């Protein structure tokens, strides 16, 4: 039963938020580098915790921080993404700008579905929390209770998967241009670095370790994204200023 629900949520989330389309370049070397960077980043975080702050709270903070970043990433994209896309299209040659703007439908559709998902789930849960059954329930309150059950059982897993795929594909932005997802990734990771610095402050350890921990993630993601952009140009002939 649980596996069937998860498969259903995964299928719908993939259909709506992982439409990479013709613009996506399948490059296994890039995928391997991104995977290696993620594994090394996680290992560095664990090593830092073990070396300088071995306590349960630190482990819990790291775990919850990862979950929070997953959920917050699409919201950051909703805010910062339009500015990055506007700059990306403005940087393109004038004769390519109408073509790029015409391909914004896929990202905008994904954004619309994500906002609608959030509004429906949040609205149902808020309304359900306000039900007062001391005087009995009307028929619409029973309907609302059933809707809340569906949201909890199917909607929340779907929302988490939608957040994951939206962050990974940057709301299907590869359909606008293959170079747009790594550009959005670079912008997103530095926005998160600033938020984490403001919210959590510097990590533990000596100054060298602190700055390495704080900047290692954003710099490694930036390096991998720049390498991906260069590889698109040298290996696949993809350019923006063509």
Q: What is the topological layout?
A:
Elements: H1 2-17, H2 28-52, H3 56-91, H4 97-102, H5 105-129, H6 139-169, H7 180-200, H8 207-236
Descriptive notes:
- The protein is mainly alpha-helical and 242 residues long.
- It has one domain (2-19, 40-236).
- The protein is built from eight helices and no strands.
- It has helices at residues 2-17, 28-52, 56-91, 97-102, 105-129, 139-169, 180-200, 207-236.
- Helix 1 (2-17) packs across helix 6 (139-169) and helix 3 (56-91) crosses helix 6 (139-169).
- The chain is globular and about 70 Å long.
- It starts with a helix and ends in a 6-residue tail after the last helix.
Class inferred from helices and paired strands: mainly alpha
Radius of gyration: 21 Å
Share of β-strand residues: under 5%
Task: Provide the low-confidence segments as ranges.
Answer: none
Total domain modules: 1
Total strand count, please?
A: 0
Largest sheet: none
Protein name: MFS family permease
Keywords: Membrane, Transmembrane, Transmembrane helix
Organism: Streptomyces zagrosensis
Transmembrane segments: 35-54, 66-89, 110-131, 143-167, 179-199, 211-229
């Amino acid at each position: 039963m649980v596996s069937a629900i998860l498969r259903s949520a995964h299928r719908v989330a993939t259909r709506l938020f992982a439409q990479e389309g013709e613009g996506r370049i399948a490059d296994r070397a890039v995928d391997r580098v991104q995977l290696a960077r993620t594994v090394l980043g996680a290992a560095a975080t664990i090593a830092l915790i073990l070396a300088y702050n071995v306590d349960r709270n630190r482990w819990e903070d790291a775990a919850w921080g990862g979950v929070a970043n997953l959920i917050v990433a699409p919201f950051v994209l909703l805010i910062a993404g339009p500015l990055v896309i506007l700059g990306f299209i403005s940087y393109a040659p004038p004769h390519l700008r109408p073509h790029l703007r015409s391909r914004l439908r896929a990202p905008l559709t994904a954004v619309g579905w994500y906002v609608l998902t959030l509004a429906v789930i949040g609205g149902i849960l808020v309304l359900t929390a306000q039900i007062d059954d001391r005087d009995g329930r009307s028929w619409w309150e029973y309907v609302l209770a059933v809707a809340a059950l569906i949201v909890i059982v199917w909607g929340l897993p779907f929302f988490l998967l939608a957040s994951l795929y939206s962050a990974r594909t940057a709301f299907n932005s590869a359909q606008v241009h293959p170079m747009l997802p790594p550009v959005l990734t670079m912008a997103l990771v530095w926005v998160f670095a600033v938020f984490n610095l403001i919210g959590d402050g510097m990590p533990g350890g000596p100054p060298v370790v602190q700055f390495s921990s704080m900047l290692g993630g954003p710099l490694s993601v930036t390096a991998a994204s720049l390498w991906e952009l260069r590889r698109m140009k040298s290996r696949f002939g993809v350019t923006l200023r063509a």
